[in-house]
Design brief:
Blueprint (H helix, E strand, L loop, with lengths): L2 H8 L3 H21 L2 H6 L11 H11 L2 H16 L1 H21 L3 H29 L5 H30 L1 H21 L13 H12 L2 H17 L5 H8 L4 H11 L14 H21 L4 H18 L6 H29 L5 H7 L2 H24 L3 H29 L1 H6 L1
Helix pairs in contact: 2-7, 2-8, 2-9, 4-7, 4-18, 5-6, 5-7, 5-18, 6-7, 6-9, 8-9, 8-14, 11-16, 11-18, 11-19, 14-16, 15-16, 15-19, 16-17, 18-19
Length: 435
């Protein structure tokens, strides 16, 4: 292959880079906010928080976060009918307004409504970027194109909580929301002046057809059972943005890490005062993915989906159990990293498995509805995590029991997949073949 053809295959149109920039700043703003949101909601007013109860914060989480996974099912169809550009503009306005209102309101109902706006905007935004990338890449450069897209998500989730959030939090939590509103709102200018409407697909689905498609998907026993089982693992995942943050804020001893980092920083500057904060949980998660995702993917690429998923969920369960050992910062970091290794191992293979069991003419439909794992996992995880945290950690002073309970949910997920592999895949194989 000539160098000219290589360059042609690796190059992307301007629209591709515009949406990559959008994705970086939107995801950076979003993860910057959620890296401290649960603590902001529950911290005392004297500490800069809103003073809500943990259970109240859990209800907010269980109602708002599922929108991130439910709305993309509809927004893709809406965009195909009425245009990506219009929906992008609306998503930026709604998100920016949600961030701003969250920063200026203090009442439970008003904050709840503001966060609903934020997540509605984010839920509509999610498929528009991936849809644009799909329409601006070719078969030759699609793998690279989506690889850069995946990196832009994690790079935003890494940089914003690491650099911006600690600085803004030092002024006021509200400034985190203000900056997120400004950055997200400024993306309107990219949409107005630079973003071009991608070519529409040949066949456009109405919302009615999308909803009818759900009925055909949900008749597939193998698919539905897999979603229900896999959702249990995501109950664990969503603790990383709620109960883990509360635990770090109230119980984790970060002094050993602070001392080590500041000793290193003294090589470059005098009297450094770096401190580990709750926002750095997101940094650890995103940083691990940035460093190791390609390696993990290369290791497991030839392994079968179900055994690989079980292995990944086992790592996730071990990571959660590690948190039960001690409140030392090194133990916490080890647990989060091991959990993230599990996430990186299990999730790509889950998507691969959905693609394998889907009928040839319904693969996109199945992959769209596979997001239901996030709807169920976040809806259950927010409330369950909050109520168990209050009971075992705050009231009984037994954080080890709390983490082991969630590790046990991971073990139940593994048992569920083993049973699924033993019975469901065999009893439904004829049905799937005939669809």
């Amino acid at each position: 292959m000539s160098d000219k053809n290589k360059v042609k295959r690796a190059s992307f149109p301007r629209n591709y880079w515009i949406v990559i920039i959008m994705e970086f700043f939107e995801r950076g703003s979003y993860y910057g906010v959620v890296s401290v949101l649960s603590v902001y909601l529950t911290n005392k007013v004297s500490e800069g928080g809103l003073g809500f109860g943990f259970e109240q914060a859990g209800v907010i989480s269980s109602i708002t976060k599922p929108l991130l996974y439910l709305l993309p099912i509809l927004s893709g169809a809406i965009a195909d009918r009425y245009g990506y550009r219009k929906l992008l503009m609306g998503a930026f306005v709604v998100m920016s307004l949600g961030y701003y209102l969250t920063g200026i309101t203090t009442g439970y109902e008003s904050v709840f409504a503001s966060l609903l706006l934020m997540n509605i905007g984010a839920g509509f935004f999610k498929p528009l970027i991936s849809g644009t990338i799909a329409r601006t890449t070719t078969e030759e450069n699609s793998g690279l194109g989506f690889g850069v897209y995946y990196w832009s998500i994690n790079l935003g989730a890494f940089i914003f909580p690491l650099v911006l959030v600690p600085f803004l939090k030092g002024i006021s939590y509200s400034y985190i929301f203000y900056v997120a509103a400004i950055l997200t709102g400024s993306l309107l200018f990219l949409g107005i002046f630079l973003y071009k409407e991608p070519e529409k697909p040949q066949s456009e689905q109405s919302l009615g057809k999308v909803l009818l498609g759900a009925l055909s998907v949900l008749k597939d026993v193998r698919f539905v059972v897999m979603i229900l089982i896999y959702s249990m693992f995501w109950i664990l995942y969503f603790q990383m943005y709620d109960s883990v943050l509360w635990y770090v804020n109230d119980y984790v001893d970060a002094d050993p890490l602070n001392t080590a980092v500041n000793r290193f920083l003294r090589l470059f500057t005098a009297n450094p005062d770096w401190k580990f904060g709750v926002e750095h949980i997101t940094v650890i998660n995103a940083g691990t993915i940035i460093c190791l995702q390609f390696l993990i993917s290369a290791i497991v690429k030839n392994f079968k989906p179900l055994p690989t998923m079980i292995t990944g969920i086992a790592f996730g369960s071990i990571g959660m159990a590690i948190l039960a050992i001690s409140n030392n910062i090194w133990v916490l970091m080890t647990g989060v990293i091991v959990f993230t290794l599990g996430e990186m191992t299990a999730h790509p293979k889950f998507l691969s498995y959905v693609g394998l069991i889907a009928p040839d003419d319904k693969k996109a439909l199945y992959l769209g509805y596979s997001f239901l794992y996030g709807v169920i996992g976040s809806a259950v995880g927010g409330v369950l995590g909050a109520y168990l945290y209050v009971h075992f950690v705050n009231n009984l002073g037994q954080p080890a029991v709390f983490w082991l309970l969630f590790s046990g949910i991971g073990v139940l997920t593994i048992i569920g997949l083993l049973i699924y592999n033993r019975f469901i895949t065999k009893t439904t194989s004829l049905k799937i073949t005939l669809q």
